[in-house]
Amino acid sequence: MKKILEELKATDRIAISGHVRPDGDCIGSCMGLFLYLKKALPGAEVEVYLEKPADIFSCIKGIEHVKTDCSADICYDVCIAVDTVSSRMGDAEKYFNTAKKTINIDHHISNASGCGMVNYVNPQASSASELVYELLEEELIDEPIAKAIYIGMVHDTGVFQYSNTTPHTLEVAAKLISYGFDFSGLIDETFYEKTYVQNQILGRALLESIVFMDGKCIFSAIDKKTMDFYKVVPKDLDGIVSQLRTTRGVECAIFMYQTGQQEYKVSLRSNGRVDVAKVASYFGGGGHVRAAGCTMQGTYHDCINNLSLQIERQLEA
Ligand code: 5GP
Ligand code: MN
């Protein structure tokens, strides 16, 4: 695989961006690449565009340089879409559409062919962060770069537990922790630790969850009113669907929260028998075989009915 610097020869202006509602892998991979390109290409202007990262990611060097405002019309020499297809970049998509050269670094199975002129797409990779690591010259990696990439890998593998973790993932992780950052502390701070209201709303979602299809599916929904009551934002709901998935006997977990009058953001998790990337893609979303998402219209009853039909088809097949 060609290293990323070979694709960036004689470029002055580079933009990096991830997907809307950025998660740990998205932020870690974008920031790792950002720190690396700032270091490797000191003469170039490098920007990273993301929706405001959650406070837990303030331990990543340079996070204060993230640009959340895409109103300026800038034509970049290169725009790099990381952990996403361009259609999920939100406001930064315009930089991708107008850039002279586009690069796509992604590991989503729903993005098989890539959306860039140059594509580094590998659904076998645990995370976009693991893929970014492959594209860097080892001698230029330093502690802050290693730490950002490591955080991304930790988040997308559930601390190296999910089935996307490969021997290679652990080899990369081993190299990264040799840079000496406090990997144990940052797993706690960015992955396990929750605020009091996050735990409260998790409790509420578990309490109100419903199992169906003979216990093979579990579902819970949080409406706008409840989110307002607890003063939580979507980022605070991360992890609820993973907790639902750990229910014994469950093949597929569904969590949704209300984003509009008749609109829900849906998260799906599977224990292996259901390909949730397929289910989410059917409704215009995407993701991985065991973790995927989409946005759906209607009441939550409509959403759950439509989703369960697709899940049931797979379980019966
Ligand atoms: P989560 O449920 O944590 O939001 O997302 C799980 C996985 O599915 C992530 O890899 C995420 O990038 C992907 N995903 C979630 N929602 C969407 C969506 O609306 N469209 C696409 N293409 N992927 C999604
Ligand atoms: Mn990812």
Could you provide a short overview of the structure?
By secondary structure, this protein is an alpha/beta fold. It has eleven helices and eleven strands.
Account of the protein in words:
It is a single chain. It is built from 11 helices and 11 strands. With 317 residues, the protein is of the alpha/beta class. It has 2 domains: 4-192, inorganic pyrophosphatase (n-terminal core); 196-316, Diaminopimelate Epimerase, Chain A, domain 1, CATH 3.10.310.30. A 6-stranded mixed β-sheet has the order 6-7-8-9-11-10. A 5-stranded parallel β-sheet has the order 2-1-3-4-5. Helix 1 packs parallel to helix 3 (128-134) and helix 1 (24-40) runs antiparallel to helix 4 (143-157). The longest helix is centred in the N-terminal third of the chain and has 17 residues, at 24-40. The structure holds guanosine-5'-monophosphate (5GP) and manganese (II) ion (MN).
Main traits of this protein?
317 residues, alpha/beta, inorganic pyrophosphatase (n-terminal core), Diaminopimelate Epimerase, Chain A, domain 1, 6-stranded mixed β-sheet, 5-stranded parallel β-sheet, 11 helices, 11 strands, 36% helix, globular, binds guanosine-5'-monophosphate, binds manganese (II) ion
Secondary structure elements and their pairing?
Blueprint: E1 13-17, H1 24-40, E2 45-49, E3 78-82, H2 93-98, E4 101-106, E5 118-121, H3 128-134, H4 143-157, H5 167-177, H6 183-192, H7 196-207, E6 210-212, E7 217-222, H8 224-230, H9 240-245, E8 252-260, E9 263-270, H10 276-282, E10 286-287, E11 291-297, H11 300-316
Parallel strand pairs: 1-2, 1-3, 3-4, 4-5, 7-8
Antiparallel strand pairs: 6-7, 8-9, 9-11, 10-11
Helix pairs in contact: 1-3, 1-4, 3-4, 4-5, 4-6
The chain binds guanosine-5'-monophosphate (5GP) and manganese (II) ion (MN).
